[in-house]
Amino acid sequence: MSPEDTPAPRSLAEALRARDDASLAALLRSRPDLITPVPTDLTQLATRAGTRASVVRALERLDRFALQTAQALAVAADPASYQELLGLMAGDERDPAVAAALPHALAVLREQALVWGGDDRLRLVRTARELLAPSPQHPSPTGLGPTVQEATAGMSPGRIQEIVTTAGLASTHDSVSAVAALTALFGDRKRMAALLAGAPEESRQVLARLVWGPPYGQVTADPAAHLRWLLDRGLLLPTAPGTVVLPREVALHLRQGRAHREPEPLPPAVEAAKVHRPQVVDATAAGQALTALATVEELLKDWHEGGPAVLRAGGLSVRDLKRTAVALDVPEPVAAFWVELAYAAGLLASDGEADERYAATPAYDEWLTLPAQERWVRLAEAWLAATRTAGLVGGRDAKERALSALGPGLDRSAAPDVRHRVLTLLAALPEGAAPDPESVLARLQWERPQRREDDLRTRLARWTLDEAELLGVTGRGALAAHGRALLGLPAPDHTPRAEEPSGPGDKLPVHHHRRPAPAAPLSPAEQAAASAAAARLLAPLLPEPLDHVLLQADLTAVAPGPLQRPLADTLGVLADVESKGGATVYRFTPASVRRALDAGRTAADLHAFLAAHSRTPVPQPLAYLIDDVARRHGHLRVGAASAYVRCDDDALLNEILADKRSAGLRLRRLAPTVLAAQSDPATLLEGLRAMGFAPAAESAEGDVLIARPDAHRTPPRTPPEPVPDGPPMPDAALLSAAIRAIRAGDLASTTPRKPTDDTPLAPGELPRTSAADTLATMQAAVLTGETVWIGFVNAEGAASQRVIAPVRVEGGFVTAYDHTADEVRTFPLHRITGVAELADD
């Protein structure tokens, strides 16, 4: 049978049945909700594809031109021909750009099972038509109103005949033929032009105001003459007292046949606002990547001993976020981004204690041991996949509750898709080109026009551009080489090209790109390979960690670059960071030196450390500072009594007792060298230090306690799971298995079979036979090699239909080739509801 002889499908199920496996796979890939769970057959697949929730999701994923095509089909006849659709989209003048793009848009709608039928009988699925067709409650984006037939549904036959006669048509014997004649008049370009040629100028102005929508207007009980002219000829039809509408056929004539004022067959180009040398972009991004690592380390180092408390409702308080922003020297929204990024990467979590606080996780210590490029990749991967959206911090949810950093309500399932799409658009530009942000937003709005969500996608895109720069994925607004690799793209070729502009103000459209961008996020295995490639590209751009600092006479040390891990850790305890940037400045103070001594270092250790790691001689003021603090450190000993102070110098204890500031500590002498206190050891330590002393804490055995800055860690924590945006994208194995199961189930449900006991079987009805008849039929099928149809109930009680070829019957079991599952299986006889022979044809 030739394709021309193939009968047209009568339903969506029949249209799906005519598809090949590749076409079904494309449908299930574009609409993954259809196989959650896997349908039993193609009829169930078609039913599920027509449900409101599934159709709404499918419409949300259409680009603007495909959606405009669906909207045009919703206002066309059902069914409509391709030529009729082309006229609605391209107009009477047949816009060549629209005509060229329409076949692809129609193919997309067919692929997603929103449209079915041949080019001569195109049908939009009923649910989509209901959603897109114009109505008074839900105006169509086309701006079109109801048809003449719909608008005259409640009109009296006499009034219809009056309109027909006034319009210059012959009267008819019934309303149906009268409405048909009026519709034919409005659809005839020549006759309509002649009719409107005699219209008053004011009448034409009314039509011009209504032609592109909204098509409804208000009239008084006694309309003006120019309105009466339109009403008498049906060019305006009443829909309710005081309300008139412009019929769809009239509007289409005035629009030259177009359903849309501005069809958009081509996506808007992403413009390059500036072009930089790729090497400059990569170096800038690498520098920012290094800053990102330093910022995350600084954040978690500040929370080593237990960070801010967790709010009762979850999250970080506004005060703690402000304090964190001051500590990091960044604005509060940027601080929220770094906090959320550390949380998404699994480096930060709550400790789960009764007095719950945030702290670094054990994964943070493992992260610190990695090379810098691998640490950056961990952060970038977490950012790409995270659904938590730091940009929402400070806003309010639907219930007007404040959204806090690390708190609930920050997940937005569209965030990973938007981030990936924005970076993909940047990757489509020439290397070194920074995009115009507004052109990126315009492109995203064209690709997903249905997804409003209070313009969430636009805000996500703006945040993505800012966050990518902060993280070092982009440099000077352009996608860096390691950022491109993170998307799975090959490394860029930096060979200069004659046609590439070199000026910072040159503009380039996106269609000049030389490499296609991936259309979807990578699989886990592909992402791992892409991350490794990104790390390899980033590594040469990062400076080698230094093993030295420059000590200065003003009690500061200058680190001209990133320091090696042991040196940075020790120096971070011995000194305070005074300024950051290309070079970090550390300042030595009595408190910082005492902190190093509290951590178990001796004065000799500190002198040796500085001498080993300084390219300049150790300044005399710094050596004196260390010796002076060390001389007084530990002269007093504080322990638990509730607390006590002991010192070999009783004169020093007398000095403490005589000081009025010690009254709050409630000290009393127990012995010439021991004072007892009512406060706990920690309070006593702080109080004595506030008085200018340098006490050391000791254990119950009398040993000096070493206070380590990294003492507090949470229990092992997993990073937060992203909230998926609907069902996950099925992989190739799942698609293959699902299609095989659907095909087999469809075979079982549509295979012709003989009726049992002369009783015809309803479609989908399971056969019912006695156990004896079932056994006899199975045994006969084994002997004859015939294929039979059975009803089967599995161990969970789910019933299904199967087409099997019995091979052996013994011990209460049937071994057969199951056409449904495409494998040999064993069926317990007691679970078979019945058996029927297949029809001869």
TrEMBL record:
Enumerate the UniProt keywords alphabetically.
Answer: ATP-binding, Helicase, Hydrolase, Nucleotide-binding
Domain (WYL) ranges? 774-835
Q: Where is this region: Disordered?
A: 133-152, 488-526, 746-767
Q: Which InterPro entries match?
A: WYL_dom, XPB/Ssl2_N
**Pfam families on file:** Helicase_C_3, WYL
Q: Which residues form the Helicase XPB/Ssl2 N-terminal domain?
A: 549-671
Instruction: Tell me the superkingdom of the source.
Output: Bacteria
- Molecular function terms in GO for this entry? helicase activity
Q: Extract the coiled-coil ranges from the record.
A: none
- State the name under which the record lists this protein: Helicase-associated domain-containing protein
Give the species. Answer: Streptomyces griseosporeus
Q: What is the lineage of its organism?
A: Bacteria, Bacillati, Actinomycetota, Actinomycetes, Kitasatosporales
